[in-house]
Amino acid sequence: MIATFFDYTVEFSKVNQLSEVVSIMAQECPEFTDACLLDQKNLHPSVIVVVDGVVINQTRDSCLSGASSVEFLLQLSGG
Q1: pTM of this prediction?
Q2: Which CATH number characterizes residue 21's domain?
């Protein structure tokens, strides 16, 4: 599975839960931590999580078994 945040990409081999991906991304990419996390493990509400092209509910620790890609996008507010 490949996880991306803007131009940063991490390849995972044995990850089954969204929380595992978030934890590893936070360790590997300081920009991810700054932009996406409320605290050490919870995603900010403005983060959109896309798994294999489908937006998922990021407030649940979703099972990612069989997924090939996870994208973390930021929702920008207009005004």
Answers
A1: 0.89
A2: 3.10.20
Q: How many domains does the chain have?
A: 1
Contact 72, 9 (CB under 8 A): no
In a domain, 63, yes or no: yes
Ramachandran angles phi, psi of 60, nearest 5°: -105, 150
Over residues 32-47, the pLDDT tens digits come to 999 999 988 899 999 9
Computed over its alpha carbons, how large is the radius of gyration of the chain? 12
- Within a domain: residue 79? no
Query: What range defines the domain where residue 30 resides?
Result: 2-74
The residue whose two tokens read 């990021």 is 58
Dihedral angle sign, alpha carbons of residues 7, 11, 1, 14: negative
